[in-house]
Write the structure tokens for this entry.
Amino acid sequence: MFPNPKSLKMPPLTCTKLALIAITGVIIQIIGLSLFVFGFFPVKPALPGISGSESYHLPVCDLVGNQSGTTLPSDQLRSLYQELSGMPPLFDRLILMVIDGLPAEFVLGKNGKPPSKQFKEAMPYTQSLLASGLAIGYHAKAAPPTVTMPRLKAMVSGAIGGFLDVAFNFNTQAMLDDNLLGQFFRIGWKMVMLGDETWLKLFPGLFKRHDGVSSFYVKDTVQVDQNVSRHLGDELSRDDWNLLILHYLGLDHVGHIGGRSSVLMVPKLKEMDDMVKLIHSSTTLSQGNDQGRMLLMIVSDHGMTENGNHGGSSYEETDSLALFIGLRNHVLDYASVIQQIDIAPTLALLFGVPIPKNNVGVLIKEAFDSLKEEQHLRALELNSWQLLGLLQAQLSGLPCRNFPCDAFSDHQIAGTSECYHRTEDMLCCLYMEAAALYSSWKSKRGTESASNKDYSSTAAAYYKFLKSASEWLSRRSTDKPVKLLAVGLATMFISCVILSSLMFCRVREIYLGRRQQSLNDSMNGWSLDDTFILGVILILVTSMGSSSMVEEEHYIWYFVTSTFYLLLLRKTAQSFSSVGVKSGEGYFGMCFTFLLLISGRILRGWHQGGVNWTSLPDISKCLEQAGSHYVKLLQLVSAFLVISIGVFALFSIQFKQKYFQMVRLSFLTSGLLVLLHITRYQDYTFSSTNYGATLLAQIVYAILGAATIGTVVALPWFFPFPTFNSCPTDNTLSPPSFFHGIQEKFPFVELRDSLYVIGWAYILCWCLLQLLLQQPINSTPILLLLVQILASMLYFASNGTHHKEWIEIAVVFNFFKAG
């Protein structure tokens, strides 16, 4: 027995109180979420401004007239930098060749072993330069996130970006921090860029000439590189530039299409080797001319996994390349691992500009081996001063602020032999030791007491400080404030408690206001599928606390969707004996449920995803081993069925407005063009990718984009909405009975029909784009996903059993996540 509702009834909440409490809870939630986001994605500490002439002085010294000098004319500024640096620039011109996604392992090998035979033979000219000592190659470890934009920023600024840069990678903004290109521009350099348009977005207005290409269409492995190489011969013959940037995207696209083992990988490496040969031969012949000393540097922004992906922190993804050609010191034995951020300070001092202000990188030793001893130590001193300035900005208790601005005395060396446990004391101790040794070396220079051992000890002390400071600053830029995260989580929890309490009170008022029988019916109406969906939500929230569960999240979705459809099958079977449920509807529900279970099982076995099980056999691997003709056949059948289902859904609507006829024709044309692209340009290896394939893909993009946007924006205006005093006697659209159940569930006919068309436009656009972009082996999963969407819609529309709307939405969301 339930208690008397009147005895439990509490004073109801007024609308004003309800609104105030709800708004308060939402505001608290926003505050908590903001605190958590700022803590989880910390903004890296950065010094404002740009480096100028002050970077050639110890940062603790406040010298009179120590101005940045960046407002001087470019010629005077270049002369000022050269005078203050105490070391002449080693080069006058730079060719920066970026091979997007090239793992250093392909060129340098791994763990002391040479690269595999096929990769070594693919780049014979580059390998000959390495073998003869004309080139020096490094595994340049990239910091995550390993995507293009933050990696380019790291190479030109020496700073480590955050994970928010992943979002900015899709909408690149101009780089405002101090960087090499800005320094080069201020001393009057003329710069040319060919390749990835990311450079143009990061550095607008800096390039004298440019030809940018987009990296969006990843199936293009030919045209994106030809757009770069077609200008190369002309640019190499010119003498009106100081910096030439060549950013090749084709190798990264090859990786996205077929992974490291793609049959296109070796030909693409040969193409890159030919470009290296062309550039090096041209620059070697021009060294005797008046064009100046030239350095060719070949880098990659990141590596790639076996499947060709990148963005994470695995060794394969962070293993980028840094190759110097033209240093003239013929080094054969050297440490082969550096940090990618080390490129920025090295290039800055090689070309006579200040090190970018927020750089945390360290000079690459072998790049300065050709310098005299005093010049090499001066370069290390400048790098140390720059890092010391960053340490002073981030460590308020740094005891280095009282350093003398003149030379260190010999007795100070003894005082630096013991370092304390505090980070500030340790870093200051290391710097003081290096500075004291340098002061001692300068005092002995030119005397009989000077020795090579003193020089080596001083250089080693500087490198010890530089590496320690760089490691600490790198960790500092990615540290997450735990207190801020905890406060954010606590604030969001308080908001959830407020809103949940409000909801509980409101629901209690509604239920207790009903009659006893209504309350009993409500309690008994809580079905098994409702309970299961709520349980799934709790399971998913709990699983997000484990990194292993996140990595294998798709297995949770597989289990959830399969289990839920078994519950639906059970409910449908029970409905056969229910009163008022048509047997035809029950049979249709059974068929749709079996279709969902079968398609879901095939999808689950198509690919072994996740982290731990990718090596296990699956359907896609079996098809690939069976031969490409099986994959091609499945691709054609899947594409034809996807296009047929989508076009049938649109053409089944009897709406004779000319605009709607154009929409149907646009999607039909797009489908036929996608089918043409598959038959003519797509084979198992994509080796036939050319300009025609790219042009056809661009046409499909344009038609689909215009049709989808036009459908969403304009189509609702073509449906005559009725007034509330009138009811239409017939539907504007008269779909066949196959889709009639879907549309009958919506009370407003015209709005219902408009949303029906818009929904199919979204679905068909997504399917056609996936058929265009995905690998051929993934065409069948696209068809199966479409089948699951359609079967779920038809099940809930035709089945006589009642389901709450939120259950239907949750089901579609769940199986889409599983797919």
Q: What stands out?
A: The chain is about 60% helix and 5% strand. The chain has a mean pLDDT of 81. Residues 370-479 form one domain. The first strand starts at residue 93 and ends at 99.
